[in-house]
Design a protein that fits this description.
761 residues, Pdz3 Domain, alpha+beta, Jelly Rolls, 4 domains
């Protein structure tokens, strides 16, 4: 029996799919219910059931295989059978039963005599995905590989050649690579970069959407173009995250006028020349936290290959003082008439976790096709799309820390996402599905990346939302002028284009608008956009070519400068801390200082120390959830963090004004939070983006990568920051007239404040 709520969701999905339901086979509402049940069981077993069997499973491949396997189950009886076939080999103590029946007696219960046994259970400090970060996930009383914090996050080997002989030609990088990696984000990648002396940048590809995870030696290639003014060609291979990657037999090939590929000379391409340290000669290897050794026992050809290994360490220490006890289980309604009991802690002897008997061991696991386990899965395949939804929904369902404030119906989104993935025709459609899916999180860090679907070309001008219209604020194309109001683009009202863009952007309303302005008119390089603009009361038709994503700069003036007698300006978006230090004496003596943070700071938050008059005592505004139960239930606690800033001399004691707006996100908001909490100056402008906390990206099969916020950040007084941001003390809005006249109205307001407050009556 399917609960009424899920019948309603299924019927809604069926309505959405009118005209798409299959004429034969499983009804669409049954398919959705089957997939929902699999997804809900998948997440709890993957992240909270601690069996040794489950820990060895290739979970991403399992998501694809499992979604494909359960989708066409005809009823709850067949679905139960298929779920048991999938899960019991790796979680033999999980019990799946019909919801209308009483739950069976549990298979895992506490024992009176536990001599020789230990408890194994999951602990999550956020969600650990293998990369060096705040976030870690371990199984208690198991040796867990943990990345060393402070490492680069990737280990790269590099070589470069002079680009001059190859200018104007195509270049191909080719090498043989294999990998021994598990877990999201742990992968090998080739990379190729062409350097130019001036913007726009030259060709770059690091296979970000084509991760190498196969254990078999295979050839991989990158093809690009050498610009006519290129200076150098750099290339190499890297390991992202944990594990080991082997690379061998590099080739750099140049296409000649006849279309044939001829090799360019590179040094030690097969790693046959080896230093006494075991490292290869003539290659650069500088990433901290990684080892580089020529492996004489594993080569594609010749005497050896280069092995890149992350210097992780193993630990069995608990992350914090809370964990499930044996006998605790998650009792979950899966839907489709089924429920499940999933043990959250197991006993283990010296060899393995115990299952239904003391001799239960990992003897078999689901028969996952080899093709799915490789790195060639494409989201053109329906099963890859469905598996991607299973993976992504569960990461966020169990670990996203802001569901209490964003108001998302995440359970309902699972139904919608499955329906959309079933209707998608290919990977491009699925990219849009994932963007709409993550948009409901209202997380400004939530982005969906795929190398094949990046709009790298922009219109030759910048726009902003001013007086409820899309307005050109600066342009490199003289046919457009500052103050032009964009009415239509490619036959569509500009305001409608903005609304459509915002529907695929996650975050606060103010951040959605920022992103929509940045992406306005983006598309394929070389394509033309047809626009109508209003200027001086006249409607003008214009054409614009989409060009490489290089924005006109806001200013080429010095980033730390006196703009009026006794009043200094510091562009925190560009100024390095070393530049600010050189001017500290002048800033300290100034009657007024304007700090511009309408965007992202350049690693210069140390300047806050010169504004503080006492020690920073706010130590709990960054919080990482401590999680031991699924679905964010009964959170074990929070680790709490701050910056611990101390005052520094010289002190900037004049009238201080900060300029900010909704482009300020994340680190910029950490910066501005000190200004707000300690009242370090007036804040002129607009609310900041309302998204802060370290990101925690993960990969999906098919080359997708999703970023999201894994940490909860609040204001220093403990109140909500997410979606709210740092509020201005003096609100400002731009005007079309001000843009036409090239006035910086924010800066003018800051100057006015300083003049009024520092001029004697």
């Amino acid at each position: 029996m399917i609960p009424p709520r899920l019948w309603q969701a299924a019927l809604a999905a069926a309505v959405l799919s009118v005209g798409c339901a299959p004429a034969l086979g499983t009804p669409i509402h049954q398919e959705i219910e089957n997939l929902r049940a699999f997804a809900k069981l998948y997440g709890v077993v993957r992240y909270f059931h601690p069996s040794d069997e489950a820990a060895q499973l290739p979970w991403d491949a399992f998501a694809i295989h499992g979604a494909e396997r359960v989708k066409n189950a005809r009823d709850s009886v067949e679905l139960k059978q298929r779920l048991e076939e999938l899960f019991l080999p790796v979680a033999p103590t999980v019990q799946i039963y019909f919801s209308e029946e009483s739950a069976p007696e549990p298979l895992v219960t506490p024992r009176a005599d536990t001599s020789g046994l230990v408890t194994v259970a999951w602990q999550h400090h956020g969600l650990g995905l293998g990369a060096p970060s705040f976030y870690r996930s371990i199984r208690l009383n198991r040796e867990n590989r943990v990345a060393r914090r402070g490492g680069a996050g990737f280990g790269s080997v590099t070589q470069g050649v002079d680009a001059a002989p190859y200018r104007g030609k195509d270049v191909k990088l080719r090498a043989f690579v294999r990998a021994d990696v598990t877990g999201s984000g742990n992968q090998g990648q080739l990379w190729l970069r062409v350097d130019r002396p001036t913007p726009p940048p030259g060709f770059f590809d690091n296979m970000d959407g084509r991760p190498i995870t196969s254990q078999r030696w295979q050839a991989y290639e990158i093809v690009g173009h050498v610009a006519g003014d290129a200076t150098m060609i750099f290339f190499g291979c890297f390991l992202a995250g944990q594990g080991t990657v082997w690379v061998d037999d590099f080739e750099l090939l140049i296409r000649d006028v006849m279309g044939s590929w001829t090799p360019a000379e590179i040094l030690n391409p097969g790693f046959e020349e080896v230093a006494k340290s075991g490292k290869p000669l003539k290659w650069s290897m500088k990433s901290p936290g990684y080892e580089y050794v020529v492996d004489r026992n594993d080569a594609h050809s010749g005497a050896g290959s280069l092995a890149i290994t992350e210097k992780s360490y193993t630990t069995s220490d608990p992350l914090f003082d809370a964990w499930p006890r044996v006998g605790e289980a998650a009792e979950k309604v899966l839907g489709a008439g089924l429920s499940a009991r999933i043990p959250l802690a197991l006993y283990s002897d010296s060899n393995h976790t115990l299952g239904v008997s003391d001799t239960s061991a990992f003897t078999r696991r689901p028969d996952i096709p080899v093709a799915i386990q490789g790195d060639m899965a494409s989201a053109d395949r329906e099963a890859v799309r469905l598996g991607g939804i299973v993976i992504a929904w569960n990461v966020l369902q169990h670990f996203y820390p802001y569901f209490d404030v964003v108001g998302a119906d995440w359970d309902g989104q699972l139904t919608i996402a499955f329906q959309d993935a079933l209707n998608d025709r290919d990977a491009r459609d699925f990219h849009h599905t994932l963007k709409r899916f993550t948009a409901t999180l209202n997380d400004g860090h939530a982005r969906v990346f795929h190398i094949a679907f990046v709009n790298k070309a922009r219109l030759p001008f910048q726009v902003d939302w001013v007086e409820n219209q899309v307005v050109v604020v600066r342009s490199r194309d003289t046919t457009f002028m500052a103050g032009d109001v964009v009415l239509t683009i490619d036959g569509r009202e500009a305001t409608m284009a903005v609304a459509a863009s915002e529907a695929e952007v996650s975050g606060s309303p103010q951040w959605k608008r920022v992103r929509a302005m940045l992406e306005f008119g983006a598309g394929d390089s070389g394509t033309m956009a047809a626009l109508e603009v209003r200027r001086d009361g006249r409607t003008l038709e214009r054409q614009a070519a989409r060009v490489s994503d290089v924005r006109p700069t806001e200013s080429n003036e010095r980033t730390v400068r006196e703009i009026e007698a006794g009043i200094w300006y510091v562009d925190l978006r560009q100024a390095e801390m070393s530049e600010i230090r050189k001017g500290l004496d002048e800033l300290a003596a100034a009657r007024g200082v304007i700090f511009d943070l309408r965007g992202y700071p350049n690693g210069n938050h140390e300047v806050l120390r010169h504004l503080l008059t006492s020690r920073d005592t706010s130590a709990a505004w960054m919080r990482v959830p401590q999680i031991i139960y699924p679905d964010r239930e009964r959170r074990a606690g929070m680790s709490q963090h701050g910056w611990g800033l101390t005052p520094a001399e010289p002190h900037i004691g004049g009238q201080v004004v900060f300029l900010t707006d909704s482009r300020a996100i994340s680190y910029a908001e950490s910066f501005m939070s000190f200004v707000e909490h300690y009242e370090l100056g007036e804040i002129v402008g607009q609310p900041t983006a309302g998204t802060n906390g370290n990101v925690n990206p993960f990969n999906l099969p098919g080359g997708f990568r999703i970023s999201w916020t894994g940490m909860q950040v609040v204001k220093h007084d403990g109140s909500q920051h997410h979606l709210i941001g740092i509020q201005p003390t003096v609100a400002m809005e731009r005007s079309i007239e001000g843009i036409r006249l090239n006035r910086d109205e924010y800066l003018e307001k800051a100057l006015e404040i300083i003049r009024v407050r520092t001029t004697p009556p």
